[in-house]
Design goal:
The chain has helices at 3-8, 13-26, 33-41, 57-76, 96-108, 121-134, 164-178, 191-206, 247-258, 304-313, 331-351, 359-367, and strands at 44-50, 85-91, 114-116, 138-139, 156-157, 182-188, 210-217, 237-240, 264-268, 289-292, 320-321, 324-328, 371-372, 383-386, 391-394, 397-402, 405-411. It is of the alpha/beta class and 430 residues long. Strands 7-6-8-9-10-16-17 form a seven-stranded mixed sheet, with helices on one face. Strands 2-1-3-4-5 form a five-stranded parallel sheet, with helices on both faces. The longest helix has 21 residues, at 331-351.
């Protein structure tokens, strides 16, 4: 993808005016005004596919909380096209088969306008084909490369959070230049982990580095001591990304294995999402580095938009619940729910969305988006959306553990995260 192209192109005003004009013209048709009035006051029903159970439950709980907060902010400001937003949540169990069933339920039982969710890649991959069959717009808050790769369909969009390919591409230069050239990777053995394995390996090799070992761990594993002896002695850097309820066990056991002598460590915060850094047994992490999609701890350069977002969701400056300092949020990821809902609002308003017959217009309106500036709607940072690939690109953050806090060490540019297009969904018919 040509970077300059996407930084220079702006959403067209013509599309906005066309949609609004069409909506306005409809009210002049004989006998149509009462129908339009009824439609315009009805809630916009958003089916929320959420991980309430299964290995994604820790994320799901905070995705739920963030989604509720975003919907309240939107409704307090007048809703979408003057209509309130109604969130209809269904648990997918962090299971791909159940995820597809949830999409079906949104369409046939709840009569939802669109579907929205979820984090775990295998659930998105299992759900998206059914969304396409039902012609249900499916806005995902995932990180897998499945959307931008062309694996899915025109009805599936990822406009609120970057994908793994973007993230690791932006991280690799920092790792190779500052921590070491010989890397051992530890990752979960499913689609999300495989994206890390494939794209980070390529990215670090492009920096003159080498991945000396790739250790895949089943996502349901509860003990990890048998994996650490597989780390080669010539490893300069351990690159780890783990998910699920056993992440704390993983990190503690890694510390116990290495003791005071360890390689450099670079982790994706997934390995410690919803985990208090001051937990006993995590002292060895002092000085290590993490990728964060959004810094958990309020930084010295904290924006007013981040302050607003934290207050709305009920998160303190340490990334924990304001009502319970031990209840640590999934702050590095959950902003994607907030930002995606605001993209949905912008797309519906630009297209003059009234109901399911306008779903194609909604998708086209989102596809026309490009620049998303830092704002209340986008508190994580400015972004550029690629309408062809349905993927957003944005700043990434590298933090270092200092005194039990994650302090910002490096911020990537948006350009660092971009890569050539692999699909053009706009060429697909509805």
């Amino acid at each position: 993808m040509a970077i300059k192209k996407y930084l220079d192109v702006q959403p067209t005003r013509r599309n906005v005016l066309t949609g609004l004009a069409a909506a306005g013209a409809a009210t002049t048709l004989p006998g149509f005004a009462p129908y339009v009035q009824a439609q315009s006051s009805a809630p916009i029903r958003i089916g929320f596919q959420v991980h309430r159970t299964g290995i994604g439950a820790a994320y799901g709980r905070w995705y739920d909380r963030t989604t509720t907060a975003a919907a309240k902010v939107i409704n307090d400001a007048g809703g979408i096209n003057g209509r309130p937003v109604e969130i209809i949540a269904e648990d997918d169990g962090t299971d791909p088969k159940r995820g597809a069933e949830v999409i079906e339920k949104f369409a046939t039982h709840h009569k939802a306008d669109i579907a929205f969710g979820t984090l775990f890649s295998h659930v998105v991959i299992g759900s998206a084909p059914r969304a396409g069959e039902l012609k249900m717009p499916y806005f995902v808050v995932s990180e897998g490369h499945h959307v931008a790769s062309g694996m899915l369909n025109r009805y599936t969009l990822q406009p609120g959070i970057t994908d793994v390919k973007s993230q690791v591409q932006a991280m690799a230069p920092f790792v190779a230049d500052n921590l070491g050239k010989k890397v051992t990777m530890i990752f979960p053995d499913f689609a999300f982990g495989h994206d890390h394995r494939d794209y980070f390996s390529a990215a670090v090799e492009a920096q003159g580095g080498e991945v000396v070992a790739k250790i895949a761990i089943p996502p349901t594993e509860t003990s990890f001591t048998k994996y650490f002896p597989k780390i080669p002695r010539n490893t300069d850097v351990i690159y780890h990304v783990m998910v699920g309820p056993a992440v704390l066990t993983f990190v503690k056991e890694m510390g116990e294995f290495f003791g005071s002598s360890r390689p450099e460590i670079f982790g994706f915060i997934d390995s410690l999402e919803a985990v208090d850094l001051k937990t006993p047994g995590l002292d060895f992490l002092e000085g290590t580095y993490f990728w964060e999609g959004n810094p958990r701890y309020a930084q010295a350069n904290q924006s007013e938009h981040d302050k607003f977002y934290r207050a709305a969701v009920g998160v303190d400056e340490n990334g924990a619940s304001v009502s319970d300092g031990k209840d640590v949020s999934t702050y590095a990821h959950m902003f994607g729910c907030w930002e995606t809902l605001h993209v949905i609002k912008a797309g519906m308003e630009a297209s003059g969305y009234q109901g399911p017959s306008d779903r194609a217009k909604l998708i086209e309106a989102v596809e026309a988006m490009t620049n998303m500036p830092l704002s209340q709607a986008h508190p994580q940072g400015a972004k550029v959306f690629n309408g062809k690939t349905h993927q957003v690109f944005g700043h990434q953050y590298i933090t270092q553990v200092k005194g039990g806090r994650l302090e910002l060490a490096h911020t990537t540019s948006i350009e660092d995260t971009m890569y050539p297009d692999e699909v053009d969904y706009t060429s697909q018919s509805f």
